[in-house]
Amino acid sequence: MSAVGLGLEAQLVLAVVAAIVATWAPPRLRSTLAGVVSAAVGLTGAVTGVLVLAGSRGRIEVPTSLPLGDVGLDPSPLGGFFMVVAGAVGAVAAVYAIGYAEGPAASRAAWASLPVFLAAMQLVPAAADAVSFLLLWELMALASTSLVLTDHRDRAEVRQAALWYAALTQLSFVLLLLGFAVLVVDAGGVGFDLIGSLDPGSTSASVAFVLLVAGFATKAGIVPVHVWLPRAHPAAPSHVSAVMSAAMVKMGVYGALLVCLRLLPTGPAWWGLLLLAFGAVSAVYGILQASVTSDLKRLLAYSTTENVGLMFLALGTALLLRSVGVGGPADSAVAACLLLVASHAAFKCTLFLAAGSVLHGSGERDLDRMGGLGARMPVTALAFGVGALGAAALPVTAGFMAEWALLQSLIHGARPEDRLVAVAMPVAVAVVALTAGLALLTFVKAYGIAFLARPRSEGAAAAHEDGAWTMRPAMLVSAAAVLALGLVPGLAAEAVTRAGGVAGVGRVGGAGLELSGVGAQLDPIALSVMAALLAVPVLFVSRAAARRRPRRQVELAWGCGGVRVSPRMQYTATSYAEPLARVFDDALRPERDIEVTHTSESRYLVERVAFRQRLDDVVEERSYRPVVRLADRVGLAARRLQNGSIHRYLGYSFVALVAVLVLVAL
Amino acid sequence: MSDSLYAQLVGLSGGVLLLSAVLIVWRRSISAEVRLLAVQGGALAGLVTVLGVNEGSTELLVVAGLVLTLKVVVLPGLLFRAVARHGASLREETPLINTTTSLIALSLLTMLAFLVSRPLLVLGDDPAIAAVPIGIALVLYGFLVLATRRHAFSQLIGFLVLDNGIGTVAFLTAGGIPLVVELGASLDLLLVVLILQVLTARIRSEFGDADLDDLTELRD
Amino acid sequence: MALSLVRLLRLIWTTGRVAEPAPPAPEPTPGRPSALAGSVQIRHVDAGSCNGCEIELGAAFGPVYDAERYGARLVASPRHADVVLVTGVVTRNMLEPLRRTVEATPQPRLVVAVGDCARNCGVFAGPYGVAGAVPDAVDVDLEVPGCPPEPQVIIEALRKVTGR
Amino acid sequence: MNAEAAVLALAQVVAMVALSPLLVGMMRQVRARLEGRAGAGALQPWRDLRKLLAKETLQAAGTSWVSVAGPTVLIVSSLLVCAMTPLLGTVTFTSVPDDLFVVVSVLLIGTVAVALVGLDAGTAFGGMGSSRHMTIAALVEPTVLVSVYALSIPVGSSVLSQIVEARLDDPASVASPVSLLALLALAVAVVAETGRLPVDNPSTHLELTMVHEAMVLESSGRDLAWLELGSWLRLGALLGLLSTLLMPWGIATELSAGGLLLASGALVAKIAITGALLAGVEVFLAKLRLFRIPELLAGSFVLAFLAVTASYLVVQA
Predict the structure, then answer these.
(1) Interchain CB distance below 8 Å, A563 and C78
(2) Dihedral of CA C143/C145/C147/C151: which sign?
(3) Are residues A654 and A578 in the same domain?
């Protein structure tokens, strides 16, 4: 058996072992043992993925007792790329969870679900045919639902979230089932290679494309089917949120790439336009919601919608450009999409783990109640800071390189001759720019309000990060990946080339990235060296000045001479985003409520002012509520049909039988 | 006239047409909008002149002169007088959608105009044809103003922008609508303006305001 | 707008320079911190003034006297300031804020008491709301007499610090 | 190639460090003269800087390393922008091209550094300034990138030095509608980024109206010196870039002592003209209400978008 095949089998075996260990180990050792084996599952996945990317192949068949046949696994380079991403995130999160898991998160069920979830997720991109893909997909969905439910006993919103998640994830499954069914009927077989030989120009291909992309978009959290994300992420334990956000939603992106690059590679222009449009809307909507929310994990969840939107936008650009025969920029767009996947995995994993650490150390998830955590949780602050830089796409982090590649392909994709492209490209540039700008604000807010200034609550004041020794190294490793992908993106160029099947992505200088298809290159190390050299004279002058007059600590910050200085006078996350919320009033529709209580003596004197602001998800409010209400009403109406009388039920059956017979006769 | 100069002049007048329309949407003060409308009329007259000189057509030059008198002198003059009667500080304070959104909508409408004019490309690669999207964009801008402004004067201005857009498209594609048609249409417009002016003056003297939202109550 | 633009342009054109010619520079105060040569940022604290001194101070920084030409500038934060310029008697409510403001100013710093009230309570000596004159609250380096002091006098004091 | 680029970058950094304070001084002087005042002279910012470096630096209890490092990060990012933008010449490093996206991102590092400094002290005004500053920065971004997109279409590259060289070769393109619209949009963006009127009033003392000033209220001594110099350098580099795009003449396309000298003279003249123009215009402007600023930025965005459309029309004609 080849090394790849061995790796695939090892993941399955290790997952089973981990589940058994989690079930049987004594509670005291459960987290450690199950965590180590789960990490091994992730690590094996990552190594297998690397092997696949390095060029080796391997196929295994896992017998099942289902009539559909065996599960066939044969990862393509594209699948290998996603295996690396999912495996690495899984391993880091599992190590983190050893220290983090406590209470319900350390229960038997939770620890047994995690390795199953990881293995299923890592094997989804390895599936060689539609049936295996769907089976693994469903396993991943079930295991993740069980993980979201971890905390269901203590928090009502967890049950609510799990319900939403289950409903949408099943919707996704149904859409995929239908989509694959259309393709399989056309191709006469379930193998991906067989499906890949279909003609993408046919109507059925377009139907399948729409169904499949809709299904994958649901998993990926694209607007308007993103509503499970901001509910499930805050509900799940943080390491699970990290895996779901950094790796699982990527399976939606993988699916879209699978359809667009492998199964139906040369589609018409409107496919690209469709992806681009939904990507653009998701990117802007996601980051807009993220920028005004003050629940840290909800913020990160919306930022995931934003990033997945950018990935879809990149993919859509690639398809659109390919359909009009613009090869170089299209290849860079695919590369940008893959770079976005890798960078988002790195920084979102870091951010969720750090958010978990904050929750663990201070008990707070509301940014409005945090503050001053930098001094109390230095490692968390460092990791979150690096992750935030990545999410804000600032040099020299992973996010920056990915967004740079995307913008390069957009700029060089300009084709005035084709008006569709000519209109789509500047709109996309504007969308990416607005997204980048808002992401900057969002993460300055998240970092600045949580980690700087003074604590806004007792929980934040008493925050600490001792204990749980595995959390810190996990966060640091993840943060290091953010920097590494940003500093030496050239090293990932080879992987991206193989995975996307694209040309013109190479290495330049030390480990800089070159997009020769669009004639652009950038070496982040050289940029950092330049910055360091320029910093030398500045630091020299600072030192000289400091020698003459050293820095002096004073007791109070300047508060206009005020005598009362309370931490409540600081800006909060809500007030920080207030100007933005006002600018985008029409899109966000916040509900504001100001209540002024006057003193009893005079109505000119104010006793207290209460301000309340509610920001609901507009999409959810407008499009889901009516559906849910309708379902409720239909349900009520249906109750009249079943009144418990056996005669009536038999009557229904009889009527149905007659109806069928009549239909057949016709 | 050399080809490149011709192309540049067409581009220039097209640019002024478009820019003045953008500024009309941007500004709140109605007297400023009227001034911009005059500038726009001037640009339209300039465009017609350029086309006329290029084709050596006296008829077009005459039309240019008429456009100039009507759209730079007569119409803005009338509007100015009306605005002055209402007090010079007349402003469109609360359009139905705020200015920021209108401006964003403008950029999308521009792109739409550019996109829908794709079939016109078969008419040739004359600079005049390439500039047709500008005319379509003006029509769309005019409609936007017409649909989103509350004040009767702003609506009138939107209507005039729309008319300029139709004129631009017509001149660019057909080398000009026949003189009679243009004259007839312009005279119609003049009539509309006069009637509206009389009406708003009456409404104003009766109700003290010309805000269209308040006018909806007149039904009852 | 177009009209007001033209009008403003004409105003600028016809007005020209209103700043009066600079009087000769005074002798710098002995012991003035050499770091402050040519550039002095001022944080103004109204510790309980009748606003007479504020009017004169406003005039000193207005176009006619133009204190800025000597390198003096009003700033918003004591962290940016070199001189804390205090006007008025120190009321009880302002005692602590005044001390804090001086504390918040980085070294080298000077405290300038402007007006008779600031120097010795002036006409406001004695009432229960007054904690005392400025020297009673903080160390004063320079005093400007007058009730209110004329802009030239205030500027002269500032020029002694900037040395210009 | 790289050695020449290094020399040029060094020359640009030195020139900008020397010139930016003078530019700010000159702009204040222009404003003073238009207001009928005598003015402190163009050298005043240099005097302020010297004094700030000699003063004590205070640090309030509870502030973190951000307050210490932020000012340095700002100035280094500004210096990096000066080194990368084609101000004196168009010779660039091969592996770090003066791609406008990279330049903008480096600028944003500085923006973020100042915003965090504003939040660090935990004062009400610091947070307020930081929030406003980031809101404006976020909304400016689309205008900047779309106008760059418009400028890059005729050249086929977003590398600034190539855009400038193309403009040198074809001076007529400078006056084309595409270029004028894009530059107008970019100018509004620069005004917003550098906190000039009508977006922010750099000389206000009223905390509630502040944007940039509110964030640095807590900084003193050399921290303040770096923050001030950093934002002056930013203003200088952006005005320099704008004027180079508008008037590309005099810039050195290859490295020589004479060319560099000529380019320096040209740069001084260009920056002086644009700076004086900006200061002159500012006299006629009042600060906009914060919630009117999005209108201004949306307007500039439309201009940028029109520039893109115009570029398509031009390419076709």
Answers:
(1) no
(2) negative
(3) no
* A625 in the same domain as A525: no
Among A549, A554, A563, select the one facing C97 at the smallest CB separation: A563
Q: Which of C98, C87, C95, C94 has its CA nearest to residue C145?
A: C87
CA distance A15 to A42: 9
Closest CA of chain D from B206, distance in Å: 34
Same domain, A439 and A319: yes
The reply to whether A625 and A575 lie within a common domain is no
Assess whether A647 and A527 both reside in one domain: no
- The pLDDT score that the predictor gives to residue B40 is 93
Residue of D nearest to C15 (CA): D36
Residue written as token pair 């086929």:
D156
Chain D positions in Cβ-Cβ contact with residue B114 (cut-off 8 Å): 309, 312
Give residue D154's domain range.
2-316
Q: For residues A391 and A402, is the Cβ–Cβ distance under 8 A?
A: no
Domains of chain C: 2-162 (3.40.50.12280)
Residues of D in contact with A414 (CB under 8 A): 149, 152-153
Q: Answer yes or no: do A532 and A409 share one domain.
A: yes
Give A-chain residues touching B100 at CB under 8 angstroms. Answer: 583
pTM strictly above 0.90: yes
Q: What is the CA radius of gyration of chain A?
A: 26
Residues A587 and A439 in one domain: yes
Task: Give the distance between the most distant pair of CA atoms in chain D.
Answer: 65
Residue in chain C nearest B28 by alpha carbon: C1
Mean pLDDT, residues A309-338 taken together:
93
The residue in chain A having the minimum alpha-carbon distance to the alpha carbon of residue C43 is A560
Q: How far is D209 from chain C (nearest CA, A)?
A: 12
Helix residue spans in A54-155 (DSSP H): 77-100, 108-123, 130-148
Subunit contact B35:C2, Cβ cutoff 8 A:
yes
Residues of D (268-287) whose Cβ lies below 8 Å from C: 283-284
The answer to whether residue A558 is domain-embedded is: no
Contact C2 B29 (CB under 8 A): no
Assess if residue A499 is contained within a domain: yes
A639 interface with D at CB cutoff 8 Å: no
What are D73-125's pLDDT values in tens digits?
A: 999 999 999 999 999 988 888 888 888 889 999 999 999 999 999 999 888 89
Strand order of the β-sheet with C83-87 is C72-74, C40-46, C83-87, C110-114, C142-144
pLDDT band at A563 (very low <50, low <70, confident <90, very high): low
Same domain, A576 and A639: no
Q: Is residue A297, in this structure, part of any structural domain at all? A: no
In a domain, A477, yes or no: yes
Residue A642 belongs to domain spanning: 618-665
Q: Count of domains in chain D?
A: 1
Q: How many CB atoms lie within 10 A of CB A108?
A: 15
For chain C, how long is the longest CA-to-CA vector? 57
Asked whether A341 and A248 are in contact (CB, 8 A), the reply is: no
Exposed/middle/buried for B205, CB within 10 Å: 0-12, 13-18, 19+? exposed
Please list the pLDDT of chain D residue by residue as tens digits (317 residues).
588 899 999 999 999 999 999 999 999 999 999 999 998 999 999 999 999 999 999 998 888 999 999 999 999 999 999 999 999 988 888 888 888 889 999 999 999 999 999 999 888 899 999 999 999 999 999 999 999 888 888 888 888 999 999 999 888 788 777 888 899 999 999 999 998 888 888 888 888 888 889 999 999 989 999 999 999 999 999 999 999 999 998 888 888 888 899 999 999 999 999 999 999 999 888 888 888 899 899 999 999 988 888 777 665 44
Structure tokens at C120: 């010795």
Q: Are C79 and A558 inside 8 Å of each other by CB?
A: yes
- Going by C-alpha positions, the residue among D252, D166, B97, B128 that lies closest to residue A585 is B97
